[in-house]
Write a structure and sequence with these properties.
The protein is of the alpha+beta class. The protein has two domains: 167 residues, Glutaredoxin (3-Layer(aba) Sandwich); 149 residues, Up-down Bundle (Glutathione S-transferase Yfyf (Class Pi), Chain A, domain 2), CATH 1.20.1050.10. It contains nine helices and ten strands. The termini are far apart. Bound molecules: glutathione. Glutathione binds next to loops.
Length: 332
């Protein structure tokens, strides 16, 4: 399978394959990795230099189908930053020219900041010699006219921790007392779950697939048990760990189960993970970040026949409030 990317600022198609010589999916590292001042990179590592966390200065580019971009958009939403940080949405259908702005399409926007037709132009504007993949999410700095960062978890950390006192009232997604646990969970679920489904779906050897799909279901089994007696991954409070988990879980039954061969069982067959997913989905602000047509028909099944099922209801009652006595913590 070929891939498209920029090489020294030039758009190339059909480059290296996605897999290594053992048939295992190989994810390339992202390359813009600056941090906004005040971000907690981890529980005990706070960024003391870099651009300031100001309202109106930063802009987020996402695709609604992409789970990584979804995590960034969701953190922006829950942290109360929808007015402070603007956002544009590319076409979920990615063809030879890469991510494209198609404002005429339902749920998509133009590039309101750089006026680009393709997202790759934004990368070249940031670095005319850029070599690498053109991925979402992208966090753009309108003051310095460059990309701050294009790694989802780092953008999520910035939104969750650096913008205290900026924007509207939102949830404190990185509360004191939970931080080490949140960091540990985010690390643990990346390889096994968030990227695990991709390792299963893109595997080109039986061994690579077996290993990946086993990791996925071992981890889901584990978290299902944890969620038997606590409401959220880190305990009583909805945190950044749940925000990282959500985009993968909400895609699971409609996409990963069938398109990525993660079909040992559906997520909605899990006793606790399924109500947990509905609980998150029904948290104010979350459902509006989920666009299933972008995710399914135009995303994972683009150019193919979209399968019919399953018929599940993210809005069904979940009754998980019984597990948590704490009011959600807000930050202004
Ligand atoms: N490590 C990156 C991965 C982002 C990523 O792979 N995004 C995909 C969409 S789900 C993409 O833009 N792919 C385009 C490409 O690889 O050319 C992150 O978490 O932000």
């Amino acid at each position: 399978m070929g891939r498209n990317m920029l090489v020294d600022g030039e758009w190339k198609t059909d480059l290296e394959p996605y897999t290594d010589e053992d048939g295992a999916f190989d994810r390339v590292e992202t390359s813009f990795r600056d941090w906004i001042r005040g971000t907690y990179r981890s529980a005990d590592d706070i960024v003391t230099d870099g651009p300031e966390p100001e309202a109106g200065r930063y802009h987020l580019y996402v695709a609604r189908n992409c789970p990584w971009a979804h995590g960034a958009a969701l953190t922006r939403q829950l942290a109360g930053l929808t007015d402070a940080i603007t956002m544009d949405i590319v076409d979920p259908v990615r063809e030879d020219e890469g991510w494209e702005f198609t404002p005429e399409k339902e749920g998509c926007t133009p590039d309101t900041v750089n006026g680009a037709d393709y997202l790759r132009e934004v990368y070249v504007a940031a670095d005319p010699e850029y070599t690498g993949r053109v991925t979402v999410p992208v966090l753009w700095d309108t003051q310095e006219d460059t990309i701050v960062n294009n790694e989802s978890i780092e953008i999520m950390r910035m939104f969750a921790t650096a913008f205290d006192g900026v924007g509207d009232e939102g949830l404190d997604l990185y509360p004191e007392g939970y931080r080490e646990e949140i960091d540990r969970i985010i690390d643990a679920i990346y390889d096994s779950i968030n990227n695990g489904v991709y390792r299963a779906g893109f595997a080109e050897s039986q061994e690579a697939y077996d290993e990946a799909v086993t990791d996925v279901f071992d981890a889901l089994d584990y978290w299902d048990e944890v969620l038997a007696d606590q409401r959220y991954l880190a305990g009583d409070r909805l945190t950044l760990a749940d925000v990282r988990m959500f985009p993968t879980l909400v895609r699971f039954d409609h996409c990963y189960h069938t398109a990525f061969n993660c079909d040992r069982q559906y997520l909605h067959q899990y006793e606790h993970l399924w109500p947990y997913l509905r609980d998150l989905y029904q948290t104010p602000g979350v459902a509006e970040t989920v666009r299933m047509e972008h995710i399914k028909d135009q995303g994972y099944y683009q150019g193919e026949i979209t399968p019919i099922g399953p018929d599940i209801d993210f809005d069904a009652p979940h009754d998980r409030d019984r597990l948590s006595s704490e009011e959600p913590a807000v930050q202004t």
